[in-house]
Amino acid sequence: MLFEKLLVFFSIAVVALCESDSLEQVDDEELLGLFRNEKHVVVLFTKSNCPECDKLETALTNIREDLVETCGAWVVKASSSPLVKLYSPTKEPAIVFFRHGVPLLYDGDDNEDAMAHFLTDNKEPVVKELTDETFEHLTQSSSGATTGDWFVMFYSNDCIDCQRLQARWETVGAKLKTRLNVARVNRKTTGRVTSRRFHIVEEPTFLLFRLGKMSLPGHP
């Protein structure tokens, strides 16, 4: 009997939360806990006295039920959180979708249909992690075989700029996934041999492999 009452109470609480006209606010400790324990978490990084933040919150609140049903996602907001600096170069407002802890930055406006489509269409991380063992096999960089074109970021774990680029790089991968492969290589650990092969001496460095030819973005 007690269990049934608790179940009813929980169901009412969930419905009330989904019908609320604002997002649940969490602090940084709660947010990090969600990243560790939940597969899908959508976060609006917001701040006070920010009309643009309010517009995005309204849009995100309106599509929250779809995100819960489609992705099983937690949809929350964090106000004036220092964590936003790790995911958005322009800080607040920012919508970041964490998939198994991997961040994806939504860089669109408050159009609800576009927002819902982008988030639900990218429930899993897009950027591929390449290593010395997999790089040549997957990219066929020396043969120009038919694995498609590759846009690769060389990074390291101690590179602050690389950390701040991760969410943006996932966005690049999401937008280009029908045209080419987007990947990254850890220059100092699992990709040391590959990095020496292409004379990578700093990070982040970006290389484009197209039809077996390597080029720097913006160069022929």
TrEMBL record:
Keyword Transmembrane attributed: no
Query: What UniProt keywords are attached to this protein's entry?
Result: Signal
SUPFAM superfamilies, from UniProt? Thioredoxin-like
Q: Where in the numbering of this chain does the Thioredoxin domain appear?
A: 127-213
- Signal peptide positions are 1-18
**InterPro entries referenced in this protein's UniProt entry, alphabetically:** Thioredoxin-like_sf, Thioredoxin_domain
Q: Which PANTHER family match?
A: GH08893P, L 2 01289
Q: What is this protein called?
A: Thioredoxin domain-containing protein
Natural source organism: Lygus hesperus
